[in-house]
User: Fold these one by one.
Assistant:
Number 1:
Amino acid sequence: MTVLGDMAQATGVAAQRGWGPLTRALGFAGSAVRRSELTVGYRVPGPILDFANQLLSHTAPELTPARSIRQRGRRPELYEVEPASVVSRVRELVGDLEGEWSTVGVIAPADLIDPIVGDLGDAGVDVADIRSTTALDRPVTVLEPATAKGLEFDAVIVVEPARFAELANGLRLLYVALTRAVQRLSVVHSRPLPALLT
């Protein structure tokens, strides 16, 4: 049997912190288990993956941080704004990014989804609220961090990452959010960034 998983993205209620307890729970132990780490990434550019990997020392310290085969790319762009300007700054960034990329994902805390979707809609942006559709057929998608797992977008805007830490397995959810971008990553925040990212 082959079991494939990424402990850095284990975000469920019963999320495992390592492979040992998981393989024992499956009835395997010792020499019956051969573990291989996949340490080369192809999807996320190096500058973005390196930024996200800073979280691993806390979220998955037993893992070897992956390195990207794509060492070229733009560094994540960090935008610190006043709390009242978070939603409008997201709209401005979406306006810039949707003209350049086919897909833009906005990953935000639950209570900011409605204000962001409303503001983008008022600005004429063709936006999907992932809570009300299962289709990813619009240029811009707004979603919560837990829903972003397994998805990818050309450009991603992560909103208020410090708020993710308030959720169960929040720093792992933040890792998921930061690694959804295959080209560009922007971070909009009014609260200070988590210490691991500074």
Number 2:
Amino acid sequence: MEVRATSYGGIITALRVPGRSGSIDDVVLGFDRLDDYLNDHPYFGAIVGRYANRIARGRVSIDGLPCQLTTNDGPNHMHGGARGFDAFVWDAEPAPGAAAVRFWRLSPDGEEGYPGNLQVQVTYTLTDGNELLVEYVATTDAPTVVNLTQHTYFNLAGQGAGDILGHELMLDADHYTPAGDAQIPTGELAPVSGTPFDFRRPTRIGSRIAAADPQLRTARGYDHNWVLNRAGAGLHLAARVIDPVTGRTLEVRTTEPGVQFYSGNLLDGSLAGKAGVRYRARTGFCLETQHFPDSPNQPAFPSTVLRPGDLFRSTTTFTFGVHR
């Protein structure tokens, strides 16, 4: 297994893993040239922050003090704003004693409207068990909100191998957070039972994606947050994906309370990726481990507030294997 990453946005540019036949393929979408990452793209492979996902109207209140963030997704704040963590060059160094790289940067007070100087560190470690370990650490000198994730688009058949609708997905979640206008959560924790959002047993991604469901119609497919069935702290199995053709498997474990499953609905063929492949709708999927979207405006959701003296720490593992 091989992982390649760049200090621009902490982007994972390639991830090569074996399949059932022994062939090794790159299973993440992206580009061959840095210049293409410098242009607009849908966060291929990047570290996303200071707040991953959406915040309604870019409005946050911390300890009763209002804060206006940049709005870059219509009237809302999305993935850190007009220039999020994905669009900065991070400092980087090899982590000692392991196949690992450590990225870090200071997000200054006022960046995209966020209060506080935020020191952020993200480490990628490749283990002998074909596991990519992603560890996030952050501290602040003023109360702020933080929600970091990794935004890689996967296709276990190999990037450029077509759509991911035949992949089988399991999500360990009894509930999800329905979204209203502009994909902002309504605040409800809705049961998945009896809906197209029930992936508690392995199910083909494409089996119900065209169902007559208003949530699917609005998002043009899956682009929702699932509430994981957590039982205490530590790493929890969030998702398992199998590509029946190549036999490749991906297991995602996380310390986070949720995961955003995105089925690549807005890929439209306008982007020429690696080797000139056109990335069309649903040719890649994301599993973004996270706190819930719009948590600062949803009192019932787990808090994303980070205070001086406290440590933000989050861990996610992506483990690859072969299903015989």
Number 3:
Amino acid sequence: MDGALQRSEQHLRVSFSLVQLPSNVVRWSGTFDGAFPQLFDLQSRVADGVAGALRVSIAPPERAKIEARPTASPSAWEEYTSALALLDRADRPGNVAQAIAHLEAALRSDARFAAAHAALGQACWARYRETGDAAWADRARDSVQEAIRIAPEAVEARLALAVIYAGRGKPQEALEEARKALALRPGSDELQRQLAYLLLDSGQADGALEAAHRAVSLRPGFGENHNAVGWVLFQTGRFGEAAASYRRQIELQPDNAQAFQMLGTSLMMQGDLAGAIAPYRDAIRLAPDARAWANLGYVYYSRGQGPDAVRAYGEAARLEPSSGTIRRSLGDARSKAGDSAGGRADWRAAIDLSRNALRVNPRDPRQLKNVAICLAKLGEKAEALRVAGEALEAGPASADTRYGVATVHALVGDTDRALVLLGQAFELGSSPSLAERDDELASVRALPGFGPLIEKAKSAHTKEVKRAS
């Protein structure tokens, strides 16, 4: 099916054609005219026309779906669909804020528009991720609760609830909601993509990759679906394959700064520091990307370019002042450059920032790990180990968590335990190339078992790449 929509003030014209593949012979075409205030009546007439062309009848349950009106207000629908288009590219600066404005306008036209409440919940959550301001997280929760109150079985509401549950540290509840939504709309690439992220966070990497690939098969021309495949591969240590997925996303979305940033990081995790610089600079050129600046800072740090590292991490902290992990890295760079007091001050600030984020999700292993590492750097060994234990309990299947907890044990002098955790992190997908140059693992690198562990991890990674190819 192919088609076009034209609008002139209040007049709408919808043109459709049915094309037989692979011959591209047009088997049917039709044009439908209507007025914008009668948008949903026009939708029903188009459905009837297409069904007639296909010589199929519309069963009563399907007829009920077609006739269902998500809102009584065509203007609310227009604001809502404008918001969805913006949220499809939430990576672009300003899109999330604009989407929120459109959704607020939609709800002024129809306060009982459940799908708009659900979308507002997702947009507010995205705003929280951008800013770190817990007020946005609370507003996201309230919007989703209103969507559920109005339409308990709405797919959009269930999906939004899954996103909120995941962000607040309730992975099983999130998976349950996502599966409810998928049962209602199995052909949704967005639902498959979200399912992939949720399964990955739950330690079900194989299922996550299958869901991400299903998202791509449903909508191969959408870059975010390739991003989902790349993220699952990246998190399981398949960095070369992840880089290929991010390159495909860049082909589809050449203005996506996050795709360039993740391509650079995939290269960096393979040990290709020089190759990572160009994608990071592309990301920074496209948008003021904090993660790209932070990772560029890591490249400079690893190369011994102290002032450049401090400058890059400082720019990242300016762009994302709520990030505890970026602030910790800035402290590392300052400390290595000889500013020990500045480094310690940054580590203290990083602890405060991560603990603020833990108010939204007390079981976020990334934030717990960050607190534990900073405490270890500050010499507070007992508290560092306690928090590291909480991080490991919250994210037992995460390579990043086990690697971070290994660094905590290395920093406090428990090198034998650090080596065991590091081996587990490699099995889950951590980068052996990263470990070889990690200052925080200096004490572990002196152990006789470190070299064989690195070689084993590199050998396993090589076999995985050959198997995948």
